[in-house]
Amino acid sequence: MTASGEHEGVRLRRTKSATRAEEIQKAERMARRSQPDKPCHRPRDSLFSWSSGFDNFKGFVNWGFLLLGIGGIRLLLENFIKYGIRVDPRQWLFFLSGKNDADEEHPSILLICYSTVPVVLSLLIEKGLSMNIITHGPGMVFHVVNLIVMVLMPLVVIHVKETGFSLIGAMYVCMLYAILFLKLWSYVQVNMWCRLSVKSKNTSQGRIRRQSLSYTDLHSTDVKQNGCDSDETRHEIDGGGKALVQYPDNLNLSDLYYYILAPTLCYELNFPRTQRIRKRFLIKRILEVVVGCQVVMSLFQQWMIPSVKNSLIPFSM
Fold it and tell me: Global pTM?
């Protein structure tokens, strides 16, 4: 009875509905706006709390980049004050030519000029194989010997003239010969596939049993065959803009050096090409490569080379 009496004595109140709460907040907001101080604040969670829902941190990112930029400018000024302006494009020509301080020769340029020899030898061997002057077995042996000599040539020359090469000159010469090795390997393999395919077709055609035909049947067969050939040729010309190159018409210097200069390690008889040369695109890419290389070389000369030289100096007592 006592507990029930206490509950009966307590006056229970109903909670305000959401609509009523919104009305109260709206009334408070209207009352604040009516003040002459023109209030601009409103109740919300702090931006530094996770409950605020704020996820746009571009300001912090820009602030970080600003600090990095200021720090980089400070290091740039310190470098200029300590070392001066060390950027000299002529020095890169000496480095890339392989010239050393104690030598007057340019061995890297000589090795680059020699790189045309194995390329031409590969072409001559392929010419001999296509004309049946060289058989398949000895031809493959010649190719293997040519590629092995090409790979070993820069290593032997650098070992013999170890004081005549600069580090960068020797490095990019070895890289060039490694790329040439991969390119010529693909060139030999693709031409071998084409040569074997042509031989297999000729062999299969020679084994076909010839049937006796009358003059009329022979004439109609020739007309149909010529019509099919002309249709195929027309399709090749119309589809690609010009006739596709067939083996062994690809065995020439222009085709080989186009492949050598192309940015690929896989040889094809017919590379995909556009109908015209995009001159603006080509000029932009050339400028990007030239300017980018100059920037990288300048950074090397201005920052990295002085730091490396200073690190080689022993500590003074």
Answer: 0.61
